[in-house]
Give the backbone structure.
Amino acid sequence: MFSPEGILIRCSSRGAAILFRVKQNSPSNSDSLGSLTEYNMGFIDISEFQPIEPVPGCRMRTPFGEHLMLSYLEMDEGAEVPLHSHPHEQGGMLIKGTLQLTIGDETRLCQPGSMFLIPPHVKHRAVAIGGPCVVLDVFSPVREDYAGLTNRYIPPVGNENREEEVPDCEAG
């Protein structure tokens, strides 16, 4: 259902999701997400979002608003998000598992509850250690590639041996 005010209400068996449609030339939407974008607002059922797999063993679902994107990342044991950077600020929290996380020149083993902030353009890498991991990432501004269900910044996984001794993260 689309109202004249630009609010789209999408109903499902689990309730209504409120989405906003904004034209690209609108002052509040000067990003590159396309000529017409739906912003998810309200409650989110992550299972209703199509996952993308930027690298083998890593699946993410990425609901987003006008200026912020959530990324629910599921990593299989041993899966790696290789060293990469992007122009988006990124924060996150490890929900489940053990994650070897490199931010810039520092690498730590993170446990559930560990949180992190990654400034724009800083190289970072993640590996699921000893089992699967679940991470909730937050991006600002919205990652245009994930909004389009693609990957623009993460390179293919290389064959480098990166096993090393690293200190533990302290959970929040």
Q: What stands out?
A: The longest helix spans residues 144-147. DSSP finds one helix and eleven strands in the chain.
